[in-house]
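Let us practice reading a record.
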Amino acid sequence: MFLKKDLAVLVLIFFLLSLFGCSKKSSEPDISSPVKNNLIFKRSDGTQVQFKPNTFVWCGPWEEDKIPVETFHIWVGFDPAVQEQKTGWMLQAVISDVNIGEELEFPNTFSWNHPDGVLLFVLDDPNELSTQEEDSRGGIVFQKLSCDTEGEVQFSIDAVIGSEFSGTGDSLKVSGTFYAPITGPPVLKKK
């Protein structure tokens, strides 16, 4: 039987948890804001590409140990524990090239070791697509892009992404909005 004393103890426990158990140190990044991925990727036949919800957001060099250009990275759908991926998308934005509220247009071509603007790559096995391809068009606008301890990214996009397999792969249409706080890079297992 439940006694008044038991109820009082439960109320006290919930009160203490609400005061202390849910507090966070100011030095910890705020990851309470969830990812809001409202992007729609459509194939030419009208079907939508589905991605796993795995999302990694971080700042760092364009390519570790090779291309030190400061870059904002987003990976969605890729699972670091799985060797063969079927679907996923990756966005890399050169931080110095992004002006909040200004559109960056596609296609965006650059030399591999001198990145410029934004690159969006999509894996839709067996197709691979990139905003560097000549069939790409449209653009992306960033509303937020920050690499500080409470960093975040927010953008809207309306674009067609060209296939890297010219003549055999279809383009994808992508539209919508995306928001995420910095989560950190995926932990990749070294062989």
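A brief commentary: Confidence is low (pLDDT under 50) at residues 1-32.
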